[in-house]
Amino acid sequence: MIARGEKVFVNAYAQYPIVLNGGEGRYLYDIEGKRYLDMMGGIAVNLLGYNDPGLNRRLKEVIDNGLLHCSNLYWNKWAIEAAEKLTALSGMERVFFCNSGAEANEGAIKMARKGGGERTEIITMENSFHGRTLGSLSATGQTKYQEAFKPMVGGFKYAQYNDLESVKELVNPNTCAIMVEVIQGEGGIKVAQEEFLKGLREVCDEHNLLLIFDEVQCGLGRTGHHFAWQKM
């Protein structure tokens, strides 16, 4: 089976020699029936476990109603209910749904620039990771991910993580936003200090900047809180 896959897939990811065939709760099963304890909880935005009865029932309800896909030009009750739940959990006012973390970060970058008017620069952090699309990759503060895809999108500056003074030094009249992972994932599981995040909030308030928290890897329950920033 793996040999068949190697013939038809683009060689983009280093994959383990396992062919998965199903899952239950926290366990995965391969095509030979061997069971694996999933220590990752999915990857990126996918952390809902496997074969959860409640989730399955909800998905089946949508499918049975013939709305497996519904254009965003129309309202549907499931999206509204999900958005209401997310606003309640997060304390935020509005929701914009995306297919992936990279798309969410791209949307945040575009929102910052649109709202910034003539201001276009965004400050992110060294050793950050925000995605593999061109905009989110440009926001990523690691050249090893960028090298093969240069030139990057301009307008990003990189400060030192947990160093508020290094952020302040980069703020200028062209800055529109500060973007930060509450816990750096690809950068080595580094946790933002509470004083650092509060300081970023103060800087953004002072200069009328958008503060973007990227919780693609640490949000929605992975830290024991709905969002990692909520424990600060």
Structure description:
The chain is an alpha/beta fold and 232 residues long. The protein has a domain of 131 residues: 3-Layer(aba) Sandwich (Aspartate Aminotransferase, domain 2), CATH 3.40.640.10. A hairpin with a 2-residue loop joins strand 1 and strand 2. It is globular, with a radius of gyration of 20 Å. 34% of the residues lie in helices and 16% in strands.
Give me some keywords for this one:
alpha/beta, three-stranded antiparallel β-sheet, 34% helix, globular, single chain, 16% strand, 232 residues
- What would you call the structural class? alpha/beta
Strand order of the largest sheet: 5-4-6-9
Which fold name corresponds to the CATH topology of the domain at 101-231? Aspartate Aminotransferase, domain 2
Order of helices and strands: HEEEHHHEHHEHEEEHE
Determine the mean pLDDT: 92
CATH hierarchy: architecture of the domain at 101-231: 3-Layer(aba) Sandwich
The unreliable regions are none
**CATH homologous superfamily of the domain at 101-231 - what is it?**
Type I PLP-dependent aspartate aminotransferase-like (Major domain)
